[in-house]
Amino acid sequence: MRQPDIEIYLKDAELPAVTAWLEQAIGPCTPWQTRGQTSQCRAGAIPVTWMPKAVGRWSSLLLESDQTPWEDDLACAKAAFAALGVQVRCAPGSWSEEQGEEDADRWLKVTAEGVSEIQWRTD
Q1: Residue 123 has what pLDDT?
Q2: Which top-level group of life is the source organism from (predicted)?
């Protein structure tokens, strides 16, 4: 089942490289509109939000659509790693508050070694 949106975290990624990847993977990007720390654009028809340094050296990339080329966060994270060569993290699936705090800290890490599950406390 496709996720309603995609969110991944990229370590030390630069917005121009991310933009080039989005354009190649999805379609042309509109100019980024920045308000405060957050930038937004559309890649093809998909609304995109970029928050640099959302968690330390990790920037958040949110694709607000279920019409992305990727089935879920992990598929997107793998594609981002392949294109950008930076470590990428994502949630192992959709999370809701009812699942509890412990599940909120479960993340998947995508590196040259592959995919592994980690505990990542982001608060």
Answers
A1: 62
A2: Bacteria
